[in-house]
Amino acid sequence: MQPTPDDEPRLARIGWSAPSSPQDVAPPQFLARVVAQHRAGYQLHDGEATFNAQPAAKFLRRDVDPVDRPAVGDFVVVAPASPPTIERILPRRTELKRGAAGESHRRQLIATNVDTVFVLVGLDGDFNPARIERYLLLIHGSGAVPVVVLTKADTAAGADTAAAELRQRLTDAIAVVAVNAKSAASVAPLLQWLGPGHTAVLVGSSGAGKSTLTNTLLGEARQATGAVREHDSRGRHTTTHRALILLPSGGCLIDTPGMRELKLTGDEELDEGQFADVDELAQSCRFGDCTHAGEPGCAVQAALADGRLDPARWQNYLKLRDELAAAADTLEAQLRRKSESRVLTKALNRRLGEKYGRH
């Protein structure tokens, strides 16, 4: 399918940022983007209108990893039908994932093809630098750029101090923006990440102000908002599913439900991104097997003693390191079981073929 002059502005409205439209979508098939997922199916947008669609049968097989099914943010090839059918997912530029909640060891997609991840944190009881670092660790491997958005800056006592301390704790490469999510003027600095062809996703706890921020960026109260409990600064899940919204600024914004659990997937890298400097310190000790608990020549203990390394940040690094190691071991075991299962299945099929023959 050769691109037409009308294709690119239409696709840009749904966040398409490639230089041209895809060449391998043959009419009558067409390109659309997943803007919502419900139990009954998907809602897509083709740059002109939204419509409901169903996934092709291959996506519904029980052995298909949920990560390989259509997700909010995906660009998909659609075949006209009643209802329209999602035939194929185009390669994803970025994938934001977390470990599935509960005891499951699967990975769960939060959003795909996003350029920016806004980590919303209220400057009230929701403010937790360790949790912010956990978000940043998940985001680093996604291919997207993190931006920490501190909400309720207009009402929280000591908001300026908290924001300054967080900026000092995080690396210089990570932007920290304090806003009043109800004020269009206050959230205007976020528009630099929400121009035409760009997509951002909002993540954070319930009550952090994701839906309020979305409404302010939209200029209308489209997303439901709820009150926050005073004793723990938590809110109810006013957003019940992920939804991609087209903004007046030309960008796309994905709102998500609040996350109670934020598990690592096992794919994250501590020696890059937010904790690269801490890992470098740990590698600079005199002894290669240093436990950083009092050995001579320990670079970590020296940095803790002279103030170069924040003790709280070091403790969070240790916690995330141990959790990541456990998640990686579980992921490796899971992949090994899948590989062994495939080998056994092939061997069984071969034996059956040898015994009964194949026709």
UniProtKB/TrEMBL annotation:
Q: Where is the CP-type G domain?
A: 106-262
Q: Which InterPro entries does the record cross-reference, listed alphabetically?
A: G_CP_dom, P-loop_NTPase, Ribosome_biogen_GTPase_RsgA, RsgA_GTPase_dom
Its Enzyme Commission number? 3.6.1.-
Location(s) in or outside the cell:
Cytoplasm
**Keyword tags:** Cytoplasm, GTP-binding, Hydrolase, Metal-binding, Nucleotide-binding, Ribosome biogenesis, RNA-binding, rRNA-binding, Zinc
Q: Which residues of the sequence carry a binding annotation for GTP?
A: 151-154, 204-212
Q: Can you tell me which residues bind Zn(2+)?
A: 285, 290, 292, 298
Region Disordered: start-end pairs: 1-25
List, separated by semicolons, the cofactors it needs: Zn(2+)
What's the family? Belongs to the TRAFAC class YlqF/YawG GTPase family. RsgA subfamily.
Tell me how this protein assembles: Monomer. Associates with 30S ribosomal subunit, binds 16S rRNA.
Entry function = One of several proteins that assist in the late maturation steps of the functional core of the 30S ribosomal subunit. Helps release RbfA from mature subunits. May play a role in the assembly of ribosomal proteins into the subunit. Circularly permuted GTPase that catalyzes slow GTP hydrolysis, GTPase activity is stimulated by the 30S ribosomal subunit.
Protein name in the entry: Small ribosomal subunit biogenesis GTPase RsgA
- What is the source species? Dokdonella ginsengisoli
